[in-house]
UniProtKB/TrEMBL annotation:
Name used for this protein in its record: Glucose-1-phosphate thymidylyltransferase
Reaction(s) the record says it catalyses: dTTP + alpha-D-glucose 1-phosphate + H(+) = dTDP-alpha-D-glucose + diphosphate
Domain Nucleotidyl transferase: 2-241
Entry EC no(s): 2.7.7.24
Job description of the protein: Catalyzes the formation of dTDP-glucose, from dTTP and glucose 1-phosphate, as well as its pyrophosphorolysis.
Cofactors demanded by this protein: Mg(2+)
Transmembrane region(s): none
UniProt-listed InterPro entries: G1P_thy_trans_s, NTP_transferase_dom, Nucleotide-diphossugar_trans
Length: 287
């Protein structure tokens, strides 16, 4: 399976912070925001990754990660000329995806919870074996801001509605998706919504209509942070800082994941970070 990080958009809700820098490069405590979604793909054992961003911001991501070899990854890059919906990522990434299944994660989403790696592995297995899509739901107080999933009494998915005026549940669809390869052709067939975007909810509705989608609920013990506003950006920073100080462990430490999976050797890692300073690299040296 291959992975895509969608890190485009203009981040207008975060102006003036994002007038000259990508939202996904803003700091969440001690590391850039994009470290967190990248760490999710790495925890899912996905090593071939495409970062999609704007013409202005893509060079910054290339400077940050290069080809990904320092992390045991193979990172590619693609331009999104203008934001035309989340589902556009599959069209932009068609050549990168090839004949593989694919995971898509939004560059401003942060996930934290025990046992997350197991859930990711189970999701990939379901896609590869059953050819079903797997998306994730999370309980929120303001579901009208999100795509919302409706269940029947047996827990089966009845509908997925984008920003409903009368939400049928409080479970929002979060920015992490696993799809079989046919999602590429599905994205090429759908029409833009009233707001002119290729909606990921439309993709999910297509899979639902064919009974080829499962919704994995992230319950108690999990945190999902959508860092699209100044308030949520600050909350995410405070959350990560508190977790790391309490546990003395890093969240979203890419080098730590690579080392644990033996994608890079200790000697290589130490050479890669030689001369780099700060609390993040002090932590990496102690691994």
């Amino acid at each position: 399976m291959k992975g895509i990080i969608l890190a485009g958009g203009s981040g207008t809700r975060l102006h003036p912070l994002t007038k000259v820098v990508s939202k996904q490069l803003l700091p969440i405590y001690d590391k850039p925001m994009i470290y967190y979604p990248l760490s999710v793909l790495m925890l899912a054992n996905i090593r071939e990754i495409l970062i999609i961003s704007t013409p202005r911001d893509l060079p910054s991501f290339k400077e940050l990660f290069a080809d990904g070899a320092d992390l045991g990854l193979k990172i590619s890059y693609a331009i999104q000329e203008k934001p035309e919906g989340i589902a556009q990522a599959f069209i932009i990434g068609e050549e990168f995806i090839g004949n593989d299944d694919v995971s898509l994660i939004l560059g401003d989403n942060i996930f934290y919870g025990a046992g997350f790696s197991k859930i990711l592995a189970e999701s990939i297995h379901k896609v590869e074996v059953s050819k079903k899509a797997v998306i994730f739901g999370y309980y929120v107080d303001d579901p009208e801001r999100y795509g919302v999933v409706e269940f029947n009494q047996a827990g089966e998915v009845l509908s997925i509605i984008e920003k409903p005026k009368d939400p049928k549940s409080n479970y929002a669809i979060v920015g992490l998706y696993f799809y079989p390869n046919k999602v590429v052709q599905a994205a090429k067939k759908i029409n833009p919504s009233d707001r002119g975007e290729l909606e990921i909810t439309t993709i999910n509705e297509l899979f639902l209509g064919e009974k080829e989608i499962d919704v994995q609920l992230l319950g108690r013990g999990f945190a999902w942070l959508d860092t699209g506003t100044h308030e949520s950006l600050n909350e995410a920073t405070e959350f990560i800082a508190a977790i790391e100080k309490r546990t003395s462990l890093k969240v979203g430490c890419l080098e730590e994941i690579s080392l644990s999976k033996k994608w890079i050797r200790r000697e290589e890692m130490l050479e890669n970070i030689k001369g780099l300073k700060g609390i993040y690299y002090d932590y990496v040296r102690k691994l």
